[in-house]
Amino acid sequence: MSSGGSPAESDTWKELLRGLVRLELKRGCQDDAAVGGFARLALVTVEGSCTRTQPAAEHGVSNELRSLLVDYQFLPNHTRADRCSALLALLDDSKSPLAGSPLPAGVPPARATSMSKPPADSMNALLEILEEPVSKLWGVGPRVQEIMGKLGVHSIADLLQHAPKGYLDLRYPAELSRESLGQMVLIKGRLLTVTEIRRKVLLVKASVRDPGGRVFHLVWFNNKFVKSRLQAGHDYDFYGRLENSFEGAQLMQPAFEESGTPAAQLHMNRIVPLYHLTSGITQKGLRAHVWRAVGRIPSAAAEYLPRDVASHFKLPDLAWSYRSLHFPTDEHEAEKARSRFAFDSLFLFELRVLMRRHAEQDVPGNPFDLPTGTVERYVGVLPFVPTGSQAAAMRDIEGDVRRPRQMHRLLHGDVGSGKTAVAGYAAYAAKVAGYQSAVLSPTEILAEQTGRVLQELLAPLGVRVATLTGGMTKSQRRSILGAVATGEVDCLVGTHAILEEGVAFERLGLSVVDEQHRFGVAQRVALGTKGNVPHSLVMSATPIPRTLALTIYGDLDISELVEKPAGRFPIQTHLLTVATRDSAYAMVREQVAQGRQAFIVVPAIDPASDEGDGTASVEETMRDLTEGSLKGLRVASLHGRMKSSDKQSTMDAFRLGNLDALVATTVVEVGVDVPNASVMVIEDAERFGLATLHQLRGRVGRGSSVSHCILIQGNVTAEGTERLQVLVHSDDGFQIAEEDLKLRGPGDILGTVQHGYDVPLFGSTALLSYRDLSALPDIRKAASELLEHDPSLGAPEHADLACMLSLRYPASKPGMEDN
Fold it and tell me: Of the four listed, 276, 447, 477, 714, which is most buried by Cβ atoms within 10 Å?
């Protein structure tokens, strides 16, 4: 078939296809209008019309036709009939190839924008589809539905919001040269031979000839299904790494589809989306489900945003954006769609935050009756002089709790900035006003330590502090619960154990949540129900740039701790490779000889764990160090699988100086305070995010001597070295967060922040780039202006917007896998 671009040639292939479609309709849409299947021959016909020099209008027709045919074989008959009708309408409308299609295109018009708001009917139809459970899609049964749930996908809206993490451009076969060796390439050709060789490993070898006459060899290992899917004499599309072998050019373990089939059109001959996965689902499987979801979208333009918002930010319409995000025709379309959904994520989040803030401003609270000089009396018993920002935060809290409305305040400070001392003032204020306080910590180690620090700070003021954890004996637990219920305990510190049904307070007036992103919304609300609208203080050491913090925590009043306590030396940070790691442990021995102690942190617990793919583990590191570099020193291990009592006894021994070094996982990341520890060694440092590394570094430098943090880079890459150098040159957590944001985008930071929420705050963080965040002030302003005129989004013209907001942030929705 000719692939030229003349009008006559164009009409020829269209006539052939038109006749084929009519025959398929006549035969009842059984996919049998041609030998091998109607859809397959129709796709081959369309494919034969496509060339790189094809006019733009014809290219649009071809892509539209592909999109209607590619999943045809999977559809029920009544839907196939609609597709055939759409194909005929499209073939008959050569002047406006996209206007008449009632069904979705893989690639809609590139200039679709919402400068004028589309009809309400199209948006209503789209909303009905988005609200449907993902089980409505063909091929999504209970098992697949459960797997998708691990990705946070429960509705069709969730699936369409599951943005690609990247794309493969497989539109055209590779133009091969010497530089192609070692690269992933697409090759189309006719299969010549296929042989299966059974030895110690199953080996499948094949050869293929491309249209230019070149022969390529193909190799697969231990894949028992390959040979049954290949047939000599048939044409295939192969995608794999090109290598040179003694037989000639060779593709190793290539993916493949038979040319012209619907599967080839979906997985090969396009810009192919790649997604984040979970166990039990493949790229091809998820891509097919997304394709079917996209196929449900009405072809007409649809928009939920107010016209002035869409126009001001120059946004393409929603229906077009869904299609182009997942199945774009080029990089420009993909970026335009991604940018649209990045805006949606930030705009909807701003609306949610501002609406919550407005609602919480009217929540009545219990005002604390505090005598003049309460802050001064607390400060007077502290064993140190508070920093300026600590003093300011105490004044903020005092002002909040005196008012007859509930306090909602975030205490946001870098590692070691003194948040616990400020929380201590809040607990003291509650005691003075005749109330109890509860402090919720994410781990038993942190709860024990926080309880001990608060006891030291508050005992001179007559505040009785107790600690409740899951590792306590029944008698210990019973004694504490009784004292809390009768008011004998003023401040209860604990883990999730505080939230259990049997924990009752006599008069809870203040709840404090430490490292709040580690708890789900339900857990934080549960703590609040222990009292009568208690004031709420949440604390976080997660370093987030200020602009982003104001957005994420926009429903809270924020107090920032920007200084470190006086008398602390800057931590000296060093970056080493495996070749020079011995010098790290030489420094450990040197510090231990001076009476100091050391932390050694590794990514994995044992070699068989999830991270144990050549990564340093607690077990191996303990063995290597005690038999080598640290032989003769007192070394113990600490990790999350240990019993609570064993973890506590190990930490106590380290704190009391009975151990020289502690080999641990990130269980020591938050809140562990051992002033005598002066060295932090982090193995395979490139495996951790900068925020985690900064938190780990903050475990040392708490005494009066110079401390060291040694980062050992296991897998040396230019990108990894550049990232780790940020830590070497800065000890400011907020500056580090800003640099990490620039280097890796907002995904890591936002992923950490939204960990504690029942739904992802920003949808898929794969949608967001550093550049998107620069528009945050304008987006926040637009959301604020909208709510000024319609605070509850109850106006008829905002009905679609309110519906989309409830879809993104439903009142009740299952949590994601890592919650």
Answer: 447
List of residues 6+ apart from 763 with CB closer than 8 A: 161, 163, 341, 344, 345, 808
Please tell me the distance from the alpha carbon of residue 702 to that of residue 568, in angstroms, as a whole number.
Answer: 7
DSSP code of residue 637: E
What tokens appear for 121 in the block? 């009917």
Alpha-carbon span 532 to 404, nearest angstrom:
13
Longest dimension (CA), the chain: 96
What is the percent of the chain with per-residue pLDDT over 70, rounded to a whole number?
Answer: 86
Residues with Cβ within 8 Å of residue 531, at least 6 apart in sequence:
435, 436, 505, 507, 508, 509, 511
Residue 533 CA to residue 90 CA, distance in Å, equals 62
Structural tokens at position 287: 């891509």
Strands (E) in 407-475, as ranges, are 408-413, 436-440, 465-468
Mapped onto helix, strand or coil, the DSSP state of residue 246 is coil
User: In the predicted model, what is the mean pLDDT of residues 230-259?
Assistant: 92
Q: Rounded to 5 degrees, what are φ and ψ at 464?
A: -95, 120
Tens digit of each residue's pLDDT (9 = 90 or more) over 285-329: 999 999 999 988 887 888 999 999 999 999 999 999 999 999 999
Low-confidence winner among 90-104, 202-216, 359-373, 803-817 (lowest mean pLDDT)? 90-104
- DSSP letters of 663-701? EE-GGGSSS---TTEEEEEETTGGGS-HHHHHHHHTTS-
pLDDT, tens digit, 9 for 90 and up, residues 610-628: 444 567 888 889 999 999 9
For residues 430 and 509, the answer to whether their CB atoms sit within 8 Å is yes
| Residues in the chain, overall count | 819
Pairing of strands 184-198, 235-245: antiparallel
- Pairing assessment for the beta strands 436-440 and 202-209 based on DSSP bridges: unpaired
- Helix segments in 730-775, DSSP class H: 733-744, 747-753, 770-773
- In whole angstroms, give the CA distance from residue 243 to residue 231: 23
Residue 8: predicted pLDDT: 54
At a CB cut-off of 8 Å and minimum separation 6, what does 235 contact? 188, 189, 190, 191, 258, 259, 260
Task: Report the pLDDT value the prediction gives residue 287, as an integer from 0 to 100.
Answer: 95
Nearest in space to 106 (alpha carbons), one of 274, 287, 339, 240: 287
pTM of the model: 0.67
**C-alpha to C-alpha distance for 66 and 107, rounded to whole angstroms:** 10
The rounded distance, in Å, linking the Cα atoms of 259 and 553 is 52
Q: Of 430, 765, 713, whose CA–CA distance to 584 is shortest? A: 713
Fill in the amino acid letter for 133.
P
Give the model confidence (pLDDT) of 33-42 as tens digits. Answer: 887 788 888 8
* Residue 724: partners with Cβ closer than 8 Å, 6 or more residues away: 575, 685, 686, 693, 711, 713
- Do the beta carbons of residue 780 and residue 551 sit within 8 Å? yes
How far is the C-alpha of 642 from the C-alpha of 647, rounded, in Å?
A: 6
**Alpha helix segments (H runs only) across 370-433:** 374-381, 388-402, 419-432
pLDDT at position 60 is 60
Nearest to 585 by CA among 598, 603, 596: 598
d(CA 276, CA 298): 26
What pLDDT shows up at residue 105?
Answer: 34
C-alpha triplet 204, 210, 214: angle, nearest 5°: 90
Averaged pLDDT score across all residues of the chain: 84
* pLDDT for residue 779: 92
State whether the Cα torsion 611-276-546-427 is positive or negative: negative
Q: Which of 417, 418, 413, 421 has the alpha carbon at shortest distance from 375?
A: 421
For 345-366, how does the pLDDT look when each residue is reduced to its tens digit (9 = 90+)?
Answer: 889 988 988 888 887 777 788 9
Which pLDDT score, from 0 to 100, does residue 170 have? Answer: 93
- What is the predicted pLDDT for the residue at 809? 81
For CA atoms 3, 9, 10, 16, the dihedral sign is: negative
